[in-house]
Amino acid sequence: MATTSTLDTLNIALPAKLPLDSGQELENVCIAYQTYGELNADRSNAILVCHALTGDQHLASPHPITGKPGWWQRIVGPGLPLDTDKFHIICSNVIGSCMGSTGPASLAPDGKPYGMRFPVITIRDMVRAQIAMLDVMGIERLHGVVGGSMGGMQALSLSANFPERAARIMVIASTARHSAQNIAYHEVGRQAIMADPAWQGGDYYGSGQTPDKGLAVARMAAHITYLSEAGLTEKFGRRLQNRPNGEKGEKSFGFDADFQVESYLRYQGLSFTDRFDANSYLYITRATDYFDLAEEHGGRLADAFTDTKSRFCVVSFDTDWLYPTAESRNIVHALNASSAPVSFVELSAPYGHDSFLLNVPALDRVIKGFLEG
Q1: What is the pLDDT of residues 319-352, one digit of tens each?
Q2: What is one GO biological process annotated to this record (predicted)?
Q3: CATH number, position 214
Q4: Which of 8, 117, 313, 342 has its CA 20 to 30 A from that of 168?
């Protein structure tokens, strides 16, 4: 196994084929990950942080492509909620993604990129790969698992399918299944990618063309769901771009960006294409759409937690309309029905779904209290 580091991405090659929910097996699986803080002698202080849809393992160190700080850098470090003086923090890139773990851009056994030949994956498959990674590391039981959004789905799936592997499960701004509206938003993004001529049926690797326009539109549509109406209004309102001497705005998509909010979304979309793979976006959004923890366990959500050996903390935000508080309450009610110890809090924040990634001091206190309590 590679030596742990706080800066460089590490890689683990899984020693066996990875079985998938589809019935297929994935060969030569590589898991890219990063760690922060030291693992103690009895390997009991490890915390697994599960990233969201377009996140990665660069939790608290600069992103190698964008140069931007890690996506949760503000809470990882000595004395911070994810306290590296006390805990060994692990964050891995999910399978199907594009930051080092095996995904559609990886080479298949025939030596060519998988593309759309990559097998269908689920949230449970992602967790199965993480458990295999922990087995290689020799970590039998985690001190905790923390995940927001899709990361929360992974945390729930781990607790349900590997009930003895974690002492604490923290689920932030997440859900036990996608609604029809969630699926609909994702489908708009997927269709935008597949309608881009540069997509080429997913076989664009090495062609010199990538479906950046389609991927950018998909990101723009998704990004709207991560924000709140109040936040957008406060930040942009209906303000027009300030243009000296009557100059016209951007023409990234054929029309001028007259409104500030248009320019903001175009920036979000275009900058996203620098660091993410379109096929990975197709596969991972589909995995979240398939996620239905109750259906996996006979149709009753409480039955998913029958054998759990974990304590739970569930957190929602009052402005999150992607995964509203009602979704978190459903999880809490199921945990109560299965007699699992659980605490729940709805936090007030103006940022919508993205609140878990932004500066919400109340969330910091909840994380620290739960992990150290």
Answers
A1: 999 999 999 999 999 999 999 999 999 999 999 9
A2: methionine biosynthetic process
A3: 1.10.1740.110
A4: 8
Annotated binding site: 219, 354
Q: Is 186 a catalytic residue?
A: no
Residue 5 clears pLDDT 90, i.e. is over it: no
pLDDT band at 231 (very low <50, low <70, confident <90, very high): confident
SS3 call for 342: strand
Same domain, 171 and 189: no
Asked whether the beta carbons of 137 and 92 are under 8 A apart, the reply is no
pTM of this prediction?
0.94
Confirm whether 179 is a catalytic residue. Answer: no
Q: Residues 6 or more apart from 319 whose CB is under 8 A from it? A: 228, 230, 231, 348, 349, 350, 351, 352, 355
Would you call 259 helix, strand, or coil by DSSP? strand
Are the C-beta atoms of residues 61 and 37 closer than 8 Å to each other? no
Domains in the chain, number: 2
Residue among 88, 320, 328, 355 flagged as catalytic:
320
Binding site as annotated, residues for substrate: 219, 354
286, containing H or E segment:
helix 278-290
Among 92, 97, 101, 149, which one carries the catalytic annotation? Answer: 149
Told to judge if 353 belongs to the known catalytic residues of this protein, a careful annotator would answer yes
125 and 274 in a single domain? The answer is: no
CA distances for 294 relative to 301, 311, 343, angstroms: 4, 19, 20
Give percent of the chain with pLDDT exceeding 70: 95
